[in-house]
Amino acid sequence: MANSDVKSKRLTGTGAAAVGRARLRQIQVLTGAGAGRLTLTDGNGGSTVLDIDFSASETHSVNIPDEGMLFTSDVHVSVATNVTALTIFHS
Predict the structure, then answer these.
(1) How far is CA 60 from the centre of its chain?
(2) Residue extents of the structural domains in the chain
(3) Which of 85, 88, 41 is nearest to 62 (CA)?
(4) CA–CA gap between residue 35 and residue 81 (Å, rounded)
(5) Are 73 and 49 in contact (CB under 8 A)?
């Protein structure tokens, strides 16, 4: 039996994901010509929850183990360097 339904949201830049309190389960990232960097914070100006680098011109899938990463306020993309688009999977 699942704990909760997993939802997805596609984003193409920085800013709030507008999903509210959430547990991040997985991220899919499409990078552009240069190496990418993605930083997610707990709400705008909140603490950094995830800061990760990616190689250029690829699609990357990041699986988050166990119960995922908790964002008590909202998932906020504070840095999306050379990230063309990303999809977050959350519950």
Answers:
(1) 12
(2) 7-90
(3) 88
(4) 8
(5) no
Q: Has residue 2 got a pLDDT over 60? A: no
Residue 55, Cβ density class (10 Å: 0-12 exposed, 13-18 middle, ≥19 buried):
exposed
3-state SS class at 18: coil
Start-to-end CA distance of the chain, whole Å, equals 14
Q: Give me the mean pLDDT over the 32-48 stretch.
A: 96
Asked whether the predicted pLDDT for residue 26 surpasses 70, the reply is yes
pLDDT number for residue 1: 43
Question: Taking the model in full, what pTM does it have?
Answer: 0.92
Res 4 pLDDT > 90 = no
Other Cβ atoms less than 10 A from the Cβ of 35: the count is 13
* Burial degree of 58 (CB within 10 A; 0-12, 13-18, 19+): exposed
In terms of C-beta density within 10 A (0-12 exposed, 13-18 middle, 19 or more buried), how is residue 66 classed?
exposed
